[in-house]
Amino acid sequence: MKTSKSYFEPILPIVSTGLVILLELLRHNYGIHLLKPGLLILLLTFAIVFYLRLSMSSLLENGLTKAMIMASYLGSILFMYMVKQPNIQCFWMLGGLLVSMLIDYKLGLLMQFNLIFLMGIAFTQQLETVLQFFVMGALMSFLSSYLKQKSTVIYASIILLSTNITLAFIIHNFVFDIKKGYNYLGSLFSILAVLATAFFLCFLYDRFALNLISKRSKEKVSIGETILEDKKEDLELDPMEEKDQTDTKDPSSTIDHPNRMEEISNINKNNNSGLGTSYELLNQEDNELLRQLEAVSPALYQHALTIGDLAGRAAKLIQADVMLAKAGGLYHEIGKIKKGNYIEEGLKIAEEYHFPSQLKAILKQHNIKYEKPTSIEAAIVMLADNVVSTIEYIEKTQNHKYTNNKIIDNIFQMRLDKGNLDKSNISVKDYKLLKEFFQKEFS
Questions:
Q1: Of 181, 197, 214, at which residue does a domain stop?
Q2: Do residues 310 and 332 lie in contact, with contact meaning Cβ atoms separated by under 8 Å?
Q3: Co-location of 188 and 261 in the same domain
Q4: Positive or negative CA dihedral for 84, 85, 90, 95?
Q5: Average pLDDT of span 129-133
């Protein structure tokens, strides 16, 4: 594998430089002008290689990832030279956006900047136009995690489209006149086509790659199957059930007391918006609802703190909503402060205390027997709960036949094979990063 990696590093600059020189030759014939874009792309591509070597060397072990980087970069260069006005027909931005969405947003940003420099040297010398595309390329990369999710793609697209049009108006002195050299509608539809194509390709890639992962690792799934499936299937529903039986106090001694209920209501005193309790209040570990959980069961309280911490840090790693994921971990079993079905009771509490709608969804979606996760944050909480509960159970029963890494690998594969992640919009990259995160945490 090292040999493959060492070949990739010089090949990318050499091939990209050769391609630019060839395209310039076809465009202008021989001349000194060939050297400027050729030398520029050579130096800039070495910057990409340098970044890959220092920060993403592990990704280069994957042949598919290397092929994607190569195809996206060279394909973008070809797109730029295939059109007459790359400052209007900006399909060449698709490659950098795909890399941001599927591999790494910093790498995608670096690729966008390289291509924008090339456009500025080879096609336009207008500083304002180059700055416009710098802003658009940066926004595409920073919003890439939102552009691949069904729930946020429209909002992120509106931000990009409105920014592009606003910048174009400013650069052209607020004159909307196609005859004077700038096609506003053409630019708008070009950006829209890039965003729509990237979303569609990202969707197809995630489905294809996740299925490929599933097929390749079918044999590995059986490693802990008897423990995780047959022997302890109920872990997925009530992972702390055994702890509850030994540690739980009578819920009626606290939850039904009018003074305690009055204390809990203080959570919402500062919330006058009617839009729901803020995550800042909910994520305070000493708020009254969590104190109520601690009074009912110290074990459940510690479990909630653990899942909240893990889910929050995992969400930060993959650029998901940290506050939502942490709150989901803290309150995923809040219904256990009352008698009855803990999910149903948890939803009643969430309604009573005006939890945000996305947090309410996590309360029922962390348990895959109830409802599949429909957000990345819900999937994170589900996986964190599965991992922690399973490892705690195995340690408690002293069945140390398998390492924690194997257990976590098995849990992720099981959730994938059963389709529990199908509605969460989780990408292949995020799936791998989350698994590595949990394996590192429990190594």
A1: 214
A2: no
A3: no
A4: positive
A5: 90
pTM, two decimals, is 0.57
3-state secondary structure of 131: helix
Residue 300 and residue 399 share a domain: yes
Going by C-alpha positions, the residue among 349, 288, 361 that lies closest to residue 321 is 361
Cβ burial, residue 304 (10 Å; 0-12/13-18/19+): buried
Whether 47 and 64 map to the same domain: the answer is yes
| Distance in angstroms (rounded) separating the CA atoms of residues 285 and 308 | 10
Q: Do 38 and 10 fall into the same domain?
A: yes
CATH number at residue 255: 1.10.3210
What domain range is 114 assigned to? Answer: 2-214
Q: 330 is written with which tokens? A: 């803290």
Same-domain check for residues 159 and 233: no
Domains identified in the chain, total number: 2
Question: Considering Cα of 239, then 242, then 247, then 248, what sign does the dihedral take?
Answer: positive
Same domain, 148 and 226: no
Among all chains, which residue has been given the structure tokens 């196609």? 178
**124 phi-psi bin (left φ>0, alpha ψ -120 to 50, beta other):** beta
279 Cβ partners below 8 Å, 6+ apart? 323, 324, 326, 327, 356, 359
Q: In the listed set 193, 214, 235, which residue is the last one of a domain according to the structure?
A: 214
Task: Count Cβ neighbours within 10 Å for each residue of 324-339 and write b for 16 or more, e otherwise.
Answer: bbbbbbbbbbbbbbbe
**DSSP secondary structure string, 200-233?**
HHHHHHHHHHHHHHHHHTTGGGGGGHIIIIII-G
> Are residues 161 and 288 located together in one domain of the fold?
no
**What are the E-state strand segments in 25-101?**
none
Burial of 203 (0-12, 13-18, 19+ CB in 10 A): middle
Residues 217-250 have pLDDT tens digits of: 444 444 344 444 434 444 443 443 444 433 444 4
User: How buried is 141 (Cβ within 10 angstroms: 0-12 exposed, 13-18 middle, 19+ buried)?
Assistant: buried
Together in a domain, 267 and 177: no
Q: Tell me how crowded residue 237 is: count the other CB atoms within 10 A of its CB.
A: 13
Q: Can you read off the two tokens belonging to residue 2?
A: 């090292």
In this predicted structure, what is the pLDDT of residue 265? 43
